[in-house]
Amino acid sequence: MVSGLNPNPLYTPVRSSRVEGSNEPSSFRRGRRKKLELLRDKSDNMGDRTLIVPSHVGENVLPNLPFFHKLLRYAHHSPSPVAVRDLNAGVERTYHHVLSDVIAVRNELEKTLSAKARQDLTEDKEVYIGLIAPGGYEYTVGFIAILAVGAAVVPMGKCLQPRT
Hints:
Elements: H1 26-46, H2 66-75, E1 82-86, E2 91-94, H3 95-112, H4 115-122, E3 128-132, H5 137-149, E4 152-156
Parallel strand pairs: 3-4
Antiparallel strand pairs: 1-2
């Protein structure tokens, strides 16, 4: 038997412009390769590919992080499961409610940030925001809202003296 021949009599080889090992025509692969080379050239000149793609910001947009992906997935369950049960305040909220409140608090928090803090956040520098809230629903929403801004949370107790 000669190697390379298919023993199946129903098999008829077809000549095509496809590259072996690929389902794409070779002309398509060449075009895609050129586009990738152009992008690579642009990104080399510009330094960072994030400079050529749209930013991931908006009033109702959360950071593109696994933590927020998971929260969104739980919020889209029907019915949305309970996320926080605060017995002291008598509050029980679903993931949908938590995310709605997080977005509202995040938007208000962004309005109160100084210009320097906003600039530091856009440049991916470290920004710390203190959180003073009773443990429970308010604390949970505040914590996640600070993370959604892109800052680090500095949790503080309610019993701190003004000097500390």
